[in-house]
Specification:
- The chain is built from three helices and two strands; from the N terminus they run αββαα.
- The protein is mainly alpha-helical and about 120 residues long.
- It has a single domain, classed as Alpha-Beta Plaits, CATH 3.30.70.
- A two-stranded antiparallel sheet has the order 1-2.
- Strand 1 and strand 2 form a beta hairpin.
- The longest helix has about 35 residues.
- The chain starts with 15 loop residues before the first helix and ends with a helix.
- The relative contact order is 0.12.
Length: about 120
């Protein structure tokens, strides 16, 4: 949705298995590509938003559509709210979605507990 182009050369392959694989790629590319663009836009904006809010959280890791942070306990709620706000607004002003973009936050001492 942000204008990314994905070339799928196997889409006209005479081999049915290769063509079917390429067709699945062509169907998935807009969805996965847009999701990747959205998370990257959020990741670019989060450090400045944290600094502006005078929060000391550190973004540690991206896993698919998740971001993992290290946050002082006293800042967990403020950081969680700020990160959700940035992630939910990551398409603005370039793109208006017809469905809401909702970000959820899990909190825990480790990644498993946060789920």
């Amino acid at each position: 949705l942000f204008g990314r182009r994905c070339h799928v050369p196997g889409i006209t392959d005479k081999n049915p298995a290769r063509r079917a694989f390429a067709e699945r790629q062509a169907i998935n590319a807009p969805i996965q590509g847009t999701a990747a663009d959205i998370i990257k836009r959020a990741m670019i904006r989060i450090p400045a938003a944290l600094e502006k809010a005078k929060l000391s959280a550190r973004m540690l890791l991206q896993v698919h559509d998740e971001l993992l942070f290290e946050v002082p306990e006293a800042e967990v709620e403020k950081t969680s709210a700020l990160v959700r706000e940035v992630m939910e607004g990551a398409t603005h002003p370039v793109l208006e979605l017809s469905v809401p973009l909702v970000a959820e936050a899990g909190i825990g001492d480790d990644w498993e507990a946060a789920h």
